[in-house]
Amino acid sequence: MGIFGGQMANVVEWEEYRDDILFWKWNNDEIKKGSKLIIRQGQDAIFMADGRVEGVFRDEGSYDIESQIIPFLSTLKGFKFGFNSGMRAEVLFINTKEVPMKWGTKNAINLPAPGLPGGLPIRAFGTYNCYVADHMVLIERIAGVKKQFAIGDVRERVDSMVSQLLMKWIVKEGKDMFNLQANAFDIARGICEDLDMEMQKIGIGITDFVISSVSYPEEVASMQRKAAAQSMVGDMNRYQQMGVVDSMGKGGRNGSAAADMVQMQMGMAMGQQMMNQMNQGAQAVSSNGAQGVNFCPNCGTKAAGAKFCPNCGTKLG
What we know:
By secondary structure, this protein is an alpha+beta fold.
């Protein structure tokens, strides 16, 4: 700070800037001659006098109050007096960045479900982004009574609405109450639209609402695990075949004893299969013989159960 005309100039800036603050009021009462306004990236500065917005400055940089700012603020008190008594004004700094936030249901939500008189209790968690969408609405509704407005204030408002919106959009978009994650995108999109519409009333916008997970009571989760296990058991043969092929592939690369054992077991199984086929063939021949199918030992003509060869007359049997 320097001294100009017997007055100590001040720096009008957002002191101790934090990403989790959406707006902050500069706390000095008077702007002196020779003062500087500093706007950083991701900030807007709003000059106010007597509760009225006089100007909004959006470009980052350092500005001289007297030569660069005042010409645009001709209605401010003190300007026409050349800073002889200082300029009284409020400066409100706005965070223009989107701020990521987490949300979660404080208590379980009971969804209407067939066969469950008390409903199906669930919990859900996820993320969303918020930002200052309308300076003027935010100033009118919030800035008049607060020195700063943080994401914690936004979270309180969102949490008070999210349970009801979850109920509304799950009932509307949830195709399977026991697998809501499958429809999470459509449910989240509906919630985002409703939530944004409500928060716009105080100048805050909501974007990118995401449902990361939906959790069920342990009884329901246990039923889901059992259903998945039964599905896998129903195709166990394929599962075993895939395991054998995978083991062979790894064995071919690593030469492990386990892979050799698998290959040996497969060889034994193939041998057993061949023996079974041979036994089946022998049984077929024996069965045909029992039905009287034989051949002449002299000329080889098929006798078809006759006592004498139809070709050479040799006695058979």
